[in-house]
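Priority: medium. Attachment 1 of 2:
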């Protein structure tokens, strides 16, 4: 037990301090190569709503001068800690170094692969947004802003989800989900589309990344909760992986609190949302994911509600969607939105973790 605690908390702390050390190196290159957006959606030429423009006008200058690839810090810290723990075991084999190595085929290969693969795809999207030109035929969104088109992003998530679903269904033989207080529900082949749809749903919650510090604090609590679930399930390698990711997120958050040194970008949010989906299935705690990651689902849910209401009822439910911008629009300072969402995130993460463990 003591070694397990040392492994989880020790390596998580190491990831945090490693991230703190890496930041000056990364930011040097981020700023040297001006890795920020060339266009802001708050530009006067952009036909966004007045409410949106009002709350973003003050951040427009910062958006055009702040690197948006800070998510590299999170997955790079995780990858380095994982590699170093494995390398030390290979070079200095012993019971202790074997224990500290958390790279295992049945627990961490898949989430690590998804984290790196998704983050690299997100990095490509970020680079297109940084260096791309307005109105590019192939690499622009519906409004003409540089970046991967929405269909391309969704297709990418579906592909990653299909790979994950194949691994769970054919390699791990998983065909059911555990529902707290109810028991196991067998899905059979429906497990595959269920997995993909779940990953898409969590990915859609990535729109929470809109205020300095908001996404980082929420994702840290989500990964910490699943680290706790995995630990009590005695899946120590998964617990360590989640704790290490949380450590990397906290290092990122240290520099993302206003005024932000950098933003998470797609390389951070895409990697984290797809990875937490995999972790939720590995811990058989997928049903409590909407509770643990409540702010993510609230953000995507509010955007869906707003879209349906405007299309069919010609009126808005929120001043701006997603919901965190609604609170800004009604007068909450951005730091108040961030802090209160952090509190809500921690509370729901604890509730979800408890339900998963006692259910």
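Attachment 2 of 2:
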């Amino acid at each position: 037990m003591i070694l397990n605690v040392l492994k989880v908390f020790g390596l998580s702390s190491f990831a945090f301090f490693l991230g703190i050390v890496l930041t000056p190196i990364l930011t040097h290159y981020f700023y040297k190569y001006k890795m920020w957006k060339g266009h802001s959606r708050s530009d006067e030429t952009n036909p966004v709503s007045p409410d949106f423009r009002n709350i973003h006008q003050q951040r427009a200058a910062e958006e055009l001068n702040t690197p948006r690839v800070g998510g590299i810090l999170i997955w790079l810290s995780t990858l380095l800690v994982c590699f170093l723990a494995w390398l030390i075991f290979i070079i200095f084999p012993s019971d202790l170094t074997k224990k500290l190595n958390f790279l295992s085929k049945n627990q961490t290969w898949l989430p690590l692969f998804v984290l790196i693969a998704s983050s690299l795809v997100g990095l490509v999207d970020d680079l297109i947004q940084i260096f791309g030109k307005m109105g590019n035929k192939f690499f622009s969104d519906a409004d003409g802003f540089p970046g991967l088109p929405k269909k391309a992003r969704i297709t990418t998530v579906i592909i990653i989800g299909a790979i994950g679903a194949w691994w769970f269904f054919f390699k791990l033989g998983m065909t059911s989900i555990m529902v707290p207080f109810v028991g196991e529900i067998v899905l059979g082949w429906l497990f595959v589309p269920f997995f993909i749809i779940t990953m898409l749903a969590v990915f859609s919650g990535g729109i929470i990344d809109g205020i300095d510090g908001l996404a980082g604090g929420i994702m840290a609590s989500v990964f910490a909760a699943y680290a706790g679930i995995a630990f009590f399930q005695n899946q120590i390698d998964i617990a360590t992986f989640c704790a290490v990711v949380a450590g990397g997120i906290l290092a990122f958050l240290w520099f993302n609190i206003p005024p932000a040194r950098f933003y998470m970008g797609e390389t951070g949010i895409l990697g984290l949302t797809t990875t937490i989906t995999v972790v939720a299935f590995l811990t058989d705690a997928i049903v409590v994911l909407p509770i643990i990651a409540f702010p993510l689902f609230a953000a995507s849910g509010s955007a869906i509600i707003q879209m349906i209401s405007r299309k069919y009822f010609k009126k808005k439910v929120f001043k701006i969607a997603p919901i965190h911008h609604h609170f800004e629009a009604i007068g909450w300072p951005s730091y108040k939105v961030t802090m209160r969402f952090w509190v809500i995130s921690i509370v729901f993460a604890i509730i979800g973790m408890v339900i998963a463990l006692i259910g």
